[in-house]
Design brief:
Elements (H helix, E strand, L loop, with lengths): L9 E6 L5 E6 L29 E7 L4 E7 L6 E7 H42 L9
Antiparallel strand pairs: 1-2, 3-4, 4-5
Length: 137
């Protein structure tokens, strides 16, 4: 087994209650969630179980200087999983989440406008039919 370059490892010094200091070395992971090779493109918003494009993060935290540990959930099939992913993969996922947010906000605005138009039409119809009286206000 060939040694990994030091730049890929994270070293942490821990002081034990006895006062003794130990060095903990975290080795860089070569694979990501589900055993995929690190160089394979991963789209975190896609569910590997059902194919849904609605996978979202439940939690994420830094895992070293270039990786993130992400807990994912698919609302379609209820799959959940955790993986460690490179910064680039997480940034692509973040862009996909931003795009999804924009789509949701746009749909909400259209729905709100359509509902308001229906309310106004009903109000106008009620006014013309003398169904609204001063006591209604």
């Amino acid at each position: 087994m060939a040694p990994q370059p030091e730049s890929e490892n994270k070293v942490r010094h821990v002081v034990l209650p006895s006062g003794r200091t130990i060095e903990v070395v975290y080795f860089a992971e070569r694979t990501e969630a589900h055993g995929r090779p690190a160089d394979e493109q991963v789209d975190l918003h896609l569910c590997g179980t059902c194919g849904s494009e609605l996978v979202y993060p439940v939690d994420w935290e830094e895992e070293g200087s270039t990786h993130w540990r992400v807990v994912l959930r698919c609302p379609n099939c209820e799959w959940t999983g955790t993986g460690v992913f490179e910064q680039e993969v997480v940034e692509r996922f973040d862009l996909e989440l931003d795009h999804g947010t924009e789509v949701l906000v746009s749909d909400l605005q259209h729905l709100t406008r359509a509902n308001m138009e229906e309310d106004v039409e009903r109000f106008i119809t009620a006014l013309h039919g003398d169904h609204i009286l001063p006591t209604d206000f």
